[in-house]
Amino acid sequence: MEYLNGWTARDRGLAEALIRHEESLHTCGHPIDRSTHPDMDGQYAVAGERDSGTEPVYCHACAAAEVWRKQNKDPEPGRLIRVVDIGPKVLPAAVNRPPDAVHEQAPGTGDG
Length: 112
Description:
The longest helix is centred in the N-terminal third of the chain and has 15 residues, at 9-23. The protein is built from three helices and no strands. It has 112 residues and is mainly α.
């Protein structure tokens, strides 16, 4: 693991904390000790359902994959599904930014 040579103690500590955090989550993304506790029965709701106070959110890429799976009941073994964006639709600038923009620092917050 030569790539770890450049890691500081802080880097390793943060990586270990992330691993511990991820291990504490159920596959649904909620903390497993809370979401599986018997007292939590009835304490979760799907967004947009049952007085959750939120609107439903849809992933249209996942929907395309689900439609494909319904239409192709018996795909070849090992067939991988890859959803691609084929639309020319232009979204607001905040949504349509390039992926690298997520990692850019705001002016005045970085080292240089």
